[in-house]
Amino acid sequence: MCFWAASAKNLCEIEQNRGDKRGKQQMGFGLFKKDRTADTVFTNGNIYTQNRELPWAEAVACRDGKFIYVGNSQEVERYIGPDTYTVDLSGKYVLPGLINTHNHAALRIFEGMYIPVSQTEDLEGVLGVMSDYIFDNPEQEAYFGYGFEEDIVKEMTQKEASEKLDAVSTEKPILLLNSGEDVLWVNNCALEQARAAAQQDGILKMSVSYFMQAVAPFNEEDLQNRVKELASEYSSKGFTSIFNVGAPEFMNNVYQEILLTMYQQETMKQRYFGSLELAGNKVGRLQEAMKKLIQKRTHTTELDDFIHCNILKLTLGQEDVCEEPIAERLQTLLMEASERGFDVHVDALDHEAFIASMEYITAIRNAGYRKNNFIIACDKEFRKKSEGFNLNDMSMENVFFQPSTRWEPANEYAAVEEAKSIEEVLDCFTVDAAESLGIENKLGSIEIGKLADFAVFEKNPFGLVNPMLFKRLLADMTVIAGQVVYDAEEENMQEWYNLMSGIQL
Prior knowledge:
Among the domains are: 114-215, Roll (Diaminopimelate Epimerase, Chain A, domain 1); 220-442, TIM Barrel (Alpha-Beta Barrel), CATH 3.20.20. The protein is built from 16 helices and 21 strands. It has helices at 8-30, 105-108, 123-136, 158-166, 188-201, 208-215, 220-236, 249-264, 286-299, 318-322, 324-339, 351-366, 380-384, 422-429, 431-436, 488-502; strands spanning 40-43, 46-48, 56-57, 59-63, 66-71, 85-88, 93-96, 98-103, 115-116, 143-148, 174-178, 184-186, 239-244, 271-279, 307-316, 343-348, 374-377, 399-402, 454-457, 475-480, 483-487. The chain is globular, with a radius of gyration of 25 Å. The chain starts with 7 loop residues before the first helix and ends with a helix. Mean pLDDT is 85; it is low at 1-33. It comes from Aminipila luticellarii. This is Amidohydrolase 3 domain-containing protein. One of its GO terms (molecular function) is hydrolase activity, acting on carbon-nitrogen (but not peptide) bonds.
């Protein structure tokens, strides 16, 4: 999708001609509901709306979290009442709130708090990784590793598996969770600690989640602070919405619980779109997967568009789509998810997985399920290879493509790696992102009736000589639902205050 956009060289001309066109354009946008005063008004800005009928504006008025006026600084005064909060943008540049669709927030807040263990490690390799880490970090009270392949303990009894970890340490708890999150491998110290907690709490059967909480390898206050710091980091880049493209479920659950607390405290700085992530070879328990999806959606249905979870995230490789039993279960799962109205995000790791994903989508569309969205994240070369496969022959309704999300977690700009102009960058972060998430009627552009989310920049984005320089652009302010949630000047003052308060005089 590509809306009209101004380039750096013609922006001046637009500014000169804007006054001549302003009267006709803004009569239509400001004619109705002039008796309604706004909660907040932002005036005297260069507002890039992503709306073809009014590409640029000077002012917006917001009420009840939505835009009620988009137009010029003179007309907006009609919406200013005694209780209206007014912000003078002083000529700064405003973009629709940026939507990050390559986000790994839940993974990032745990960075350095767990020991990554590769699925390719054998038994001795896993024990070696844990031993080395514990030797280098003796101060920790508990050790948690994530990602091992469960087959290495498949033939062991619980006692035998625990004894293997006892050889690494008997003094402190060790927990290892496999990549599928259905096998928790612990030493006897961790087991005894969890059993003692369960006995005290009257728990007869311990879940993985309970076990993790009982042994407590994480500091809850540290995690809460990390979420807040990360939210400020996203705000400084202009992000007002994030889509978490996948993380271990327990990390997602912890992250979402912290967000729920922030929502209740009215301190959220981004809207959150969550997902349930499954690897292709872990879709055997279909009923369990659908139950989790339904629960996640149900728990977020009344949160004022701030926290959502309506997306099934799958990571597929050749081995997943070529083994017939797995392929059949995948299609069944995708069909049921589509029937229930869930959107689907697929990371296709190779060409075979990409082709299979498109064939699944075609089968689902042919079955009559056409309203849910599919996002296919993959290497762009997969889409170019034909080998008898033609995208034009497939059902492409509500199907969107983007670069692979299997990047480093901190790479928040992966979605625009293929962009060739600043206009394409902005499309990726606004209208295209909103459409792929099925929220184009609420976000992605600055229009009357849409949610009042936007970002304010000192520098002109269209003056950038290279589109990739956009990642260096810092926001002065971000606004969600018409309320300022981030102000760079205030953030800097707070950082200075915290620094000075920590200095021992």
